[in-house]
Design the sequence.
């Protein structure tokens, strides 16, 4: 349903900031001025303390400059809070809608009782009809319905949910649009997907991720250093001013040293406010991006780990290849015509509802024009189903009631018996084989295909070549992965030869053939032993140990609850390919933080050149040479730096929410690109910005 | 021309020594076999050379050894008049003895005293020179412990401090120092136990010329990036630095070990290219600094230098301007702090360069060992920011830079600026800046320089300030102590934290830390994050002076 949304990340909602959103988040941003909340963010806390200080100074010794600077310092804090509020707000709106839907929901139990959705227990069976909201997470056990999942996924196109198979799982809070389904509830009360999602998108119990903590430490250290650098400047300034006693007092410096307002301005401009203001918004938005792709991450740690993944374990079926093998060729043995073989194959597959069986019928029709015969009309036929013991299936046709369609091909007296199946089993059934048959069978196996031998009582007719069809575009994606330094390993139950052939066709780096859940677990442990981080997807209960062991375990929503418990992410779309996108989101999250940190630090250079001469040129006129931007006056220079510092936060909110552009490529290429944009940009942009602001504000009287 | 030749041959010689000396150091610190002397020492100290220490034990050993060294040296200086070869000097006064003891144990070699008129020969040889050796060994040992942290696979231990100390002293410093002593003696340095000679000068005055074991002390003074001169005028004294070519050798000795340390890093982490990257960062910063210093001095602004063709004041014609300026840059780029010219008389910007060199944290190439661990910390911080930009949890030579690593690295790079800035501000706030000869920007530079030198364990003196008062001795002593041992503790803690990690294998997605891009980035981070911190203070000192 949402593969549309996930394949075009640029179309993700909320990527662009609209002013309405800013306006709506304003009350929230003001509420966040509470120092008890703000002290968690040391950089912005310092700015707030500074703002309080300048407010007091402006009150006791009012001047135009003092008030304007004070206002802009407060705005700096508000803008930072706004960034966080907007990021949270997007989730909050979603959460509010979810919560409303959830509270109003009534559950209609199968036995006719009607209870509140919140009282549902695991195992309850409920009936949901068109227009009703599904009261809890569960599996459809009866019926088929189109369901509107937009409340969770944001995707308005309805999806089909039906009993049995891949599409049986439904999520509480979504709405049935048509028909009627019976759902068995699988969640525990209060632990539904919606509950977890509400907690997640609200960021209520958001915990800082490991890299975020480390970055916060660096920012705190930088803040302390700049604080020290500015505070210790004061005695030096007093000394210098006393030495140049004839120098006039200015708004920036007098006999008592640098004025409090300017000192605070300098501190605020130097400490990394840009990244400090946007850091938590980046984290919230990163989680939000996952939610928008219908992935529920149980922890932020898992999202970061996704960016670090070295090895991706991908199940062959459904991820690398289309769900099923398909018949691609009929290879008759000597003396049998291809159409004869196709006919027998088709007959034996009529009742075979497996995708492989259907593909045989389709191929027979496409290549030899054999019309599909309705198994129900062939009353003379007895179909022999596939069993694990016989490892073949087929059909027995009574001689007397031979259908008109049937040609008496080599009929054994008494009717026809046709079998198709694994080579060994069919040969045993026939009783003899030939070199030719073995040759064909081996050839097909070697090419990665699966040979199905077709035989009619007493003789082998030929071999059907079943082939795995690799999804289009997979090779390119794996190439991208390789560029990113990620090794892809294909997991399959096939024999090594088949696996090798498909692995080569798909372009994966490695494969694990004849894999049991234990093998999978062992492989993960082996990779981790070498220091690698492993990501995998899984849905079955026997995947649970491996999912738990993997650093990033993405459970399919259609999967068993054991798998969902074991993994640290759940993909609502149950799309195993999503793993690749999760990795990209994880990387994008880290890159956004790194890029804005670099930008923030690089900004300092220009600010030094604006403020230092502004303060001290009055004392040592020679220092005016440092005023490379030729700013209008000391007052306008300091104010321009402060305003730029505040505005750049607002300007970068969209980037923080959307994340920097990410293209899979090598680390060197990524670094080079981001350094040019955010490093060099971070050096140049403030020079231009400050100059521009100065050109405007120089007209304010009193500056 | 001669100036260029001097610098170019020096660069070539240091480059030539990189591999052989680095490889030799690598073998010394990773070797296991001990010789008779070493076994004797281990038995004497009561150490089992085969045991390995955790970072905590390693750090405690460093601190214990240094504490005992300070105490011993302090007492030694206090009672030197009771011992032999005191040349009739009194015991050193308390505050000077404290300052000097701390100064030599911390590899700073700040000299609040005048060598030839304070210290007897025994104090110089058995007190100060011994610390010249072991304080250098401590620096190298700590650097090696940090490298072991990077190289280790899930290990709790970082080697054995006592073994490292012994091996580095006996196998690296001692033999090279002996060789250098002989070379210096050939070059004309004095090496005797003379109490001095009274001579009548040309003008008829009498002068007391002190002799002594100069050449031997000089060798380790340079090799261990110590810088504490035998004479007050340090390497400007003709007995301590007779000719241009002894000047060249002194600089070579200063630079050879700090520049060879990255090789040890590369060898131990199993990727020589990582060593080349680090040495490239050091070289870029060092060459830029030397070029700027020489440039400022040769083409110096100001009336007098313009008239003389270069800034000649305070420089010995024996060496000339480029050699003197190079010496000034090199001794501050390392933690040597020796001088062969009067930095206080440099042009404003020329005098700012030694200060900036030290403010960079002395990482280009820095003191023996200390330079490498300082630069590895800066590289770690660079890796963190740059690593995020490639979308992975940052990792450096296979070790993840997580919250704990960042905490330690951030604290490390907080310490020195804090010590320098707080010290300087305290001097001005309390009026103790009044002992500076000058007022105005130059007076500010003199005070700032003193704390920069002490906090970074350089020991270089701008001069032009009286610092043997109790306040200055105490304050600078504290600055040296904090500037040395807080970083060492943090480095060892970082090493312990890295050692416990399992290395992450390198892939295409790993930030390459051996390419020019990364080298440039570390240079940039060093300048923007470290040097800019001091820009406000510098603006009121040398910059204000230079732009007036």
Sequence:
């Amino acid at each position: 349903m949402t593969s549309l949304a996930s394949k075009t990340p640029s179309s993700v909602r909320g990527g662009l900031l609209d002013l309405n959103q800013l306006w709506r988040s304003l009350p929230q941003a003001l509420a966040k001025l509470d120092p008890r909340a703000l002290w968690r963010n040391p950089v912005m806390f310092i700015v707030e303390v500074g703002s309080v200080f300048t407010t007091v100074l402006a009150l006791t010794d009012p001047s135009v400059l003092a008030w304007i600077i004070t206002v802009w310092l407060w705005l700096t804090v508000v803008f930072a809070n706004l960034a966080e509020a907007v990021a949270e707000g997007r989730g909050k709106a979603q959460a509010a809608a979810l919560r409303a839907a959830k509270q109003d929901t009534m559950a209609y139990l199968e036995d006719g009782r009607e209870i509140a959705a919140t009282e549902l227990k695991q195992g309850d069976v409920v009936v949901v009809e068109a227009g009703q909201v599904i009261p809890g997470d569960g599996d459809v056990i009866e019926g088929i319905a189109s369901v509107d999942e937009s409340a969770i996924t944001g995707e308005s196109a309805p999806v089909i949910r039906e009993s049995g198979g891949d599409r049986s799982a439904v999520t509480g809070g979504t709405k049935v649009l048509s028909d009627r389904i019976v759902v068995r509830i699988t969640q525990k009360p209060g632990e539904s997907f919606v509950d977890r999602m509400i907690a997640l998108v609200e960021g209520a119990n958001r915990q800082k991720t490991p890299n975020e903590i480390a970055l916060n430490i660096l920012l705190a250290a930088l803040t302390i250093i700049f604080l020290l650098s500015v505070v210790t400047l004061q005695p030096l300034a007093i000394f210098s001013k006393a030495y140049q006693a004839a120098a006039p007092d200015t708004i920036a410096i007098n006999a008592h040293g640098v004025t409090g307002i300017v000192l605070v301005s300098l501190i605020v401009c130097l400490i990394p406010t840009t990244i400090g203001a946007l850091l938590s918004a980046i984290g919230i938005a990163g989680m939000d991006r996952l939610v928008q792709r219908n992935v529920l991450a149980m922890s932020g740690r898992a999202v970061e780990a996704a960016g670090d993944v070295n090895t991706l374990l991908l199940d062959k079926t459904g991820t690398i290849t289309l769900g099923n093998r398909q018949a691609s060729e009929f290879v008759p043995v000597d003396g049998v015509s291809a159409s004869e073989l196709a006919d027998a194959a088709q007959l034996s597959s009529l009742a075979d509802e497996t995708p492989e069986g259907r593909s045989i019928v389709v191929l027979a029709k496409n290549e030899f024009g054999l019309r599909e015969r309705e198994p129900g009309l062939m009353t003379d036929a007895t179909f022999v189903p596939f069993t694990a013991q016989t490892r073949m299936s087929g059909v027995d046709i009574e001689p007397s009631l031979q259908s008109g369609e049937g040609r008496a091909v080599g009929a054994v007296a008494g009717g026809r018996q046709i079998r198709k199946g694994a080579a060994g089993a069919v040969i045993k059934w026939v009783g003899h084989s030939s070199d030719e048959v073995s040759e064909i069978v081996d050839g097909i196996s070697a090419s990665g295909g699966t040979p199905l031998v077709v035989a009619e009582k007493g003789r082998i007719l030929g071999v059907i070549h079943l082939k795995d069809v690799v999804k289009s575009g997979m090779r390119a994606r794996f190439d991208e992965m390789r560029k990113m330094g990620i090794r892809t390993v294909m997991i399959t139950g096939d024999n090594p030869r088949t696996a090798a052939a498909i692995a080569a066709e798909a372009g994966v780096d490695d494969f694990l053939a004849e894999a049991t859940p234990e093998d999978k677990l062992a492989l993960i442990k082996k990779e981790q032993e070498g220091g690698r981080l492993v990501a995998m997807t899984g849905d079955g209960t026997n995947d649970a140990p491996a999912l738990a062991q993997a650093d990033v375990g993405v459970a399919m929503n259609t999967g068993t609850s054991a798998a969902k418990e074991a993994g640290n992410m759940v993909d609502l779309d149950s799309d195993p390919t999503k793993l690749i996108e999760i990795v990209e989101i994880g990387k994008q999250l880290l890159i956004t933080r790194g890029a804005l940190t670099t930008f923030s630090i690089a900004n300092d250079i220009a600010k030094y050149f604006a403020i230092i001469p502004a303060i001290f040129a009055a004392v040592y006129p020679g220092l005016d040479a440092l005023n490379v931007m030729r700013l209008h006056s000391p007052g306008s220079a300091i104010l321009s730096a402060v305003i730029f510092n505040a505005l750049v936060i607002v300007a970068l909110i969209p980037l923080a929410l959307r994340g920097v552009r990410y293209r899979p490529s090598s680390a060197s290429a990524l670094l080079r690109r981001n350094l040019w944009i955010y490093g060099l940009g971070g050096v140049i942009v403030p020079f231009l910005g400050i100059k521009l602001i100065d050109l405007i504000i120089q007209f304010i009287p009193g500056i | 021309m001669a100036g260029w030749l001097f610098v170019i041959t020096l660069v070539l010689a240091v480059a030539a020594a990189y591999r052989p000396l680095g490889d030799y150091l690598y073998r010394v610190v990773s070797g296991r076999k001990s010789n008779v002397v070493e076994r004797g020492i281990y038995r004497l100290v009561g150490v089992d050379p085969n045991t390995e220490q955790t970072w905590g034990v390693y750090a405690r050993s460093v601190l214990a050894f240094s504490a005992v060294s300070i105490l011993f040296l302090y007492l030694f200086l206090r009672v030197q008049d009771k011992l032999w070869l005191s040349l009739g000097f009194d015991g050193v006064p308390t505050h000077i003895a404290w300052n000097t003891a701390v100064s030599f144990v911390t590899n700073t070699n700040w000299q609040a005293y005048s060598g030839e008129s304070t210290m007897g020969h025994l104090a110089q040889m058995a007190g100060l020179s011994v610390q010249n050796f072991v304080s250098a060994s401590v620096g190298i040992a700590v650097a090696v412990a940090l490298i072991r942290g990077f190289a280790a696979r899930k290990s709790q231990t970082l080697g054995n401090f006592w073994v490292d100390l012994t091996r580095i002293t006996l196998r690296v410093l001692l033999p090279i120092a002996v060789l250098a002593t002989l070379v210096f003696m050939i070059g004309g340095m004095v090496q005797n136990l003379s109490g001095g000679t009274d001579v009548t000068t040309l003008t008829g005055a009498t002068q007391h010329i002190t002799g002594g074991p100069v050449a031997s002390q000089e060798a380790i003074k340079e090799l261990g990036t110590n810088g504490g001169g035998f004479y007050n005028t340090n390497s400007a004294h003709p007995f301590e630095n007779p000719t241009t070519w002894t000047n060249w050798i002194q600089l070579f000795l200063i630079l050879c070990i700090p520049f060879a340390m990255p090789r040890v890093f590369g060898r131990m982490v199993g990727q020589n290219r990582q060593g080349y990257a680090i040495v490239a960062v050091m070289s870029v910063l060092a060459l830029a600094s030397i070029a700027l210093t020489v440039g400022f001095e040769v083409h110096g602004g100001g009336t007098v230098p313009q008239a003389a063709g270069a800034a000649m004041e305070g420089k010995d014609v024996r060496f000339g301007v480029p050699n003197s300026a190079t010496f000034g840059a090199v001794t501050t780029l390392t933690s040597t702090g020796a001088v062969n010219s009067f930095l206080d008389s440099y042009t404003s910007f020329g005098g700012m360069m030694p200060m900036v060199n030290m403010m960079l944290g002395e990482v280009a190439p820095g003191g023996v060992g200390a330079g490498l661990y300082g630069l590895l910390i800066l590289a770690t911080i660079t890796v963190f920011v740059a690593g995020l930009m490639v979308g992975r949890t940052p990792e450096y030579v296979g070790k993840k830079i997580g919250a704990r690593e960042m905490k330690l690295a951030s604290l490390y790079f907080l310490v020195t600026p804090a010590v320098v800035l707080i010290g300087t501000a305290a001097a001005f706030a309390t009026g103790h800046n009044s002992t500076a000869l000058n007022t105005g920007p130059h007076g500010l530079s003199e005070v700032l320089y003193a704390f920069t030198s002490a906090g970074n364990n350089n020991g270089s003196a701008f001069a032009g300030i009286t610092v043997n008062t109790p306040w200055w001795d105490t304050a600078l002593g504290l600055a040296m102590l904090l500037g040395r041992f807080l970083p060492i503790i943090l480095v060892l803690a970082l090493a312990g934290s890295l050692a416990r990690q399992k290395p992450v294998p390198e892939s295409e997605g790993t930030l390459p830390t051996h390419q020019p891009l990364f080298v440039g980035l570390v240079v940039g981070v060093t300048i923007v994050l470290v040097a800019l911190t001091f820009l406000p203070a510098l603006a009121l000192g040398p910059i204000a002076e230079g732009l007036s």
